[in-house]
Amino acid sequence: MSDDVSARPRDLHPRSAELYARACRVIPGGVSSPVRAFRAVGGTPLFIARGAGAQVFDADGRGYLDLVGSWGPLIAGHAHPQVLAAVSAALERGMTFGAPCAGEVELAERVVRAYPAVEQVRFVSSGTEAVMSAIRVARAFTGRDLLVKFAGCYHGHADHLLVAAGSGLATFGRPSSAGVPEAFTAATRVLPLDDEDAAQALFAREGERIAAVIVEPVPANHGLLLQRPEFLQRLRALTSAHGALLIFDEVISGFRLARGGAAELTGITPDLATFGKVIGGGMPVGAFGGARRIMARLAPEGDTYQAGTLSGNPVAMAAGIATLDLLEHSDGWRQLESRGAELEALVRPVLARARFPVHWVRAGSLFWLSLHAAGAPRTAATLTAAESARFARLFHALLARGIYLPPSAYEACFLSLAHTSADLQQFTAALDETLATLA
Fold it and tell me: Does 260 have pLDDT greater than 90?
């Protein structure tokens, strides 16, 4: 089968094309989040009508094996009966109260039991909000202003986090988005991943001014950039030695890679951690937590303000509890690791036969196909124009074969409990056939 069919995505998806044309008139770019617009791969974005298990169905009625999983939260698959039942029961009691509810207490107790060093947790409505709030608490607790982040790690779209790395070992934050004044990012420093010397040098210069270092322990937004344990251990040592806090952004990795997230897997305990995705079970939820002595700075107990009308929403809490129940009672994390290992065993021989570089990277149920000629990177590495174009062809050729990948060469794929051995074999066969057609 030729991949020529993928060059005509509008012809294949007329209803999506119609909806996209309408959306572009009333929504900037026709989408509510930029990557959905297919700008990195070309063609018309799919408008999804429904999901079931490991599949999604577009507005034209076509079904696809889904490896996006709503970018991570659907660890049980689409429309899991147990999650739907919990959400339905919660809806019958009311959609929102703007007041405390039992569900947020129960979900908070589960997070505290599961995650190392988290004694208290506060719920918010998104990962961006969780990170923004954790940083505010860290600055209040330490009485310092400087924040250190890493190129290739994404922590949401708060102004002070939208910064790009400079050419030196460390750089003053420079905005990477219009509408962000340089003054907002002046207290942000950016370091390269996988570079202990750069971190050491920055702390030697400004360690007494650094409030916190924030890092994705498993960076998954600029490819899947697996870090050496020694690098993360060095960050833990540097922050402890200089009185700064270490924040693990586990919005993607938390409750996906293990019950205790990347902190459990690495044996490294952060001071604060942020969560999202899985703990919402498909609903908009974020959270941040840490030791009681740090979290005590939050109002109303302390002097650091943070609030949200829909925080602790009862329907979202019910979805999160049901999802964690599924994982706990089905030995879900072992199952997900097994699925990831099974897919890896199937795919590696296929990639070895490819006529151009395709590298396999996996962490549990997360995986990434890196098209970098030099090999899968551990730092933020930009694909060449030719490599990006090759991914676009790969994406559309797989889409034509019923496989829905993230529409960006830098995004990781997600497996769920709903993916079966047959699904993994379907993906592998489609990938094998597609790679054979791409020179």
Answer: yes
Q: What is the mean pLDDT of residues 200-205?
A: 97
**Residue that the structure tokens 């009681």 belong to:** 292
The H-or-E segment that residue 200 falls in is helix 196-206
Tokens of 303: 């002097």
Per-residue tokens: 145: 């202003």
Average pLDDT over residues 292-308: 96
Rg of the chain, C-alpha, whole Å:
22
- Euclidean distance between CA atoms 306 and 311, whole angstroms: 10
222 three-class SS? coil
Among residues 68, 3, 12, 9, the alpha carbon closest in space to that of 434 is found at: 3
3-class SS letters over 229-243 = HHHHHHHHHHHHHHC
Cβ density class 222-232: b for 16+ within 10 Å, e for less: bbbbbbeeebb
- 434: tokens are 């597609």
- Please give the span between the terminal C-alpha atoms of the chain, in angstroms, as a whole number: 14
The candidate with the shortest Cα–Cα distance to 220, out of 130, 285, 152, 158, is 152
Mean pLDDT, residues 4-16 taken together: 61
Length of the chain: 439
Active-site residues: which are they? 154, 249, 277
What is the structure's pLDDT at 168?
Answer: 33
Residues 6+ apart with CB under 8 A from 293: none
C-beta of residue 180 within 8 angstroms of C-beta of residue 159: yes
Q: Are strands 188-191 and 146-150 parallel, antiparallel or unpaired?
A: parallel
- Beta pairing class for 245-249 and 272-275: parallel
CA–CA dist 173, 193 (Å, integer): 16
Taking the alpha carbons of 118, 122, 126, 132 in that order, is the dihedral positive or negative? negative
Residue 51 CA to residue 426 CA, distance in Å, equals: 18
Give the model's pLDDT for residue 164. 46
